[in-house]
């Protein structure tokens, strides 16, 4: 692993390259990004102090809500980490926030590599293990073991769900933002999986058909907040999205099959989803208030197979990435997540006070 250095997101963030060896396309790396939290201000007094308490914000003389919590975020398909606002949600409540650009995505993509390609989602165990090792290096464990929250969007939600099932004693909670838990043509998945599997064995890098007219990216641009813009690298988050290859699609379908059979994740899970889906075949304003990527009702049903403790939060007007929705739906998404996280924290033993 290299040392921490300046990240493309600016002074609030640092990044570190995680060396993962080589494959037939050359050097393989993942990249971990960490948010640098602001110092907790001096405690307010009077009504200002009461308002901070009602909002759940920390005071200098008491630990913040998420003291002792680490968050690891994993992005979706044709994507990478750029969510400054999401990181601030966690750091302002006392958590340490980290994000992982998986191999061949975003900061981790190297020349000559097939973007986003793996033939087995278990491959990402190495990326996640390296990220957790980097997180542990300067973790303060003097007051007890830290809590780990896994935060995944879309394909990242699928990857983290499968990982948590294989490593049942590591994560303390999962928060999933529109996780890709089921194929969009769910009734046909079992029928097409053998065909895709054969193609994956014979010609794994063949491109699979997909249609991306750019409407999801347009919807995000339409609802963006002018005074807090989201800027992305078009090479790392292209429109239309990256090519889908047979070997990768076979890995995804196998992940969907495993979810359908039940994962039995012991940690509590929160799933955030839009209330409805819309087909992006032609542009309309409806696309700015719906998930145009997944069939959300199928995802809601599949979510119940993740484990014994699953909360499904449906947000009216949310996009596929609920935290990039129009402001009313985005604010509701953060409010739902905060309510769930506060309830989860309330069930935990109190993190030991300094010097205890």
Structural category is alpha/beta
Write down the overall geometry: globular
Largest sheet: 9 strands, mixed
Q: What is the ordering of alpha helices and beta strands?
A: EEEHEHEHEHEHHHEHEH
Instruction: Report the end-to-end length measured between terminal Cα atoms.
Output: 34 Å
Order of strands across the biggest sheet?
1-2-3-5-4-6-7-8-9
The rounded Rg comes to 20 Å
Low-confidence stretches: 39-44
Mean pLDDT across all amino acids: 91
Q: Determine the strand fraction and express it as a percent band.
A: 15-25%
The count of β-strands is 9
Number of H- or I-type helical stretches: 9
Helix content percent band: 25-40%
What would the keywords be for this entry?
356 residues; alpha/beta; globular; 9 helices
Question: What does the secondary structure layout of this molecule look like, with pairings?
Answer:
Blueprint lengths: L4 E3 L2 E14 L2 E10 L10 H10 L13 E6 L9 H8 L4 E6 L22 H14 L9 E7 L1 H12 L6 E5 L11 H14 L12 H9 L22 H16 L7 E6 L21 H8 L6 E6 L11 H20 L10
Parallel strand pairs: 4-5, 4-6, 6-7, 7-8, 8-9
Antiparallel strand pairs: 1-2, 2-3, 3-5
Helix pairs in contact: 4-7, 5-7
């Amino acid at each position: 692993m290299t040392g921490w250095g300046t990240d493309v997101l600016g002074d609030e963030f640092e990044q570190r390259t995680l060396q993962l060896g080589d494959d037939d396309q050359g050097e393989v790396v993942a990249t971990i990004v960490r948010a640098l939290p602001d110092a907790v201000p001096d405690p307010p007094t009077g009504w200002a102090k009461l308002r901070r308490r009602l909002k759940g914000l920390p005071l200098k003389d008491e630990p913040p809500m998420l003291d002792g919590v680490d968050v690891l975020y994993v992005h979706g398909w044709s994507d990478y980490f750029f969510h400054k606002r999401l990181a601030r949600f966690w750091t302002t409540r006392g958590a340490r926030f980290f994000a992982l650009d998986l191999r061949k995505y975003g900061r981790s993509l190297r020349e000559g590599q097939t973007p986003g390609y793996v033939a087995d989602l278990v491959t990402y165990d190495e990326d996640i293990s390296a990220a957790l090792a980097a997180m542990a290096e300067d973790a303060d464990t003097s007051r007890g073991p830290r809590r780990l929250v896994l935060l995944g969007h879309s394909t990242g939600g699928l990857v983290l769900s499968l990982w948590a099932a294989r490593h049942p004693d590591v994560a303390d909670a999962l928060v999933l933002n529109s996780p890709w838990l089921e194929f969009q043509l769910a009734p046909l998945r079992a029928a097409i999986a053998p065909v895709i599997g054969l193609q994956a064995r014979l010609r794994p890098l063949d491109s699979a058909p997909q249609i991306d007219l750019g409407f999801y990216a347009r919807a995000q641009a339409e609802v963006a907040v002018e005074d807090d813009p989201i800027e992305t690298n078009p090479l790392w988050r292209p429109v239309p999205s990256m090519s889908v290859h047979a070997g990768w699609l076979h890995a995804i379908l196998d992940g969907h099959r495993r979810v359908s059979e039940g994962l039995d994740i012991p940690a509590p899970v929160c799933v955030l989803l839009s209330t409805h889906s819309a087909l992006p075949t032609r542009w309309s304003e409806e696309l700015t208030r719906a998930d145009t990527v997944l069939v959300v009702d199928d995802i809601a049903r599949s979510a119940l197979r993740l484990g014994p403790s699953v909360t499904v939060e449906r947000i009216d007007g949310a996009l596929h990435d609920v935290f990039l929705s129009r402001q009313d739906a985005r604010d509701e998404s953060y409010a739902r997540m905060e309510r769930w996280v506060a309830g989860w924290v309330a069930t935990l033993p109190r993190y030991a006070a300094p010097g205890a």
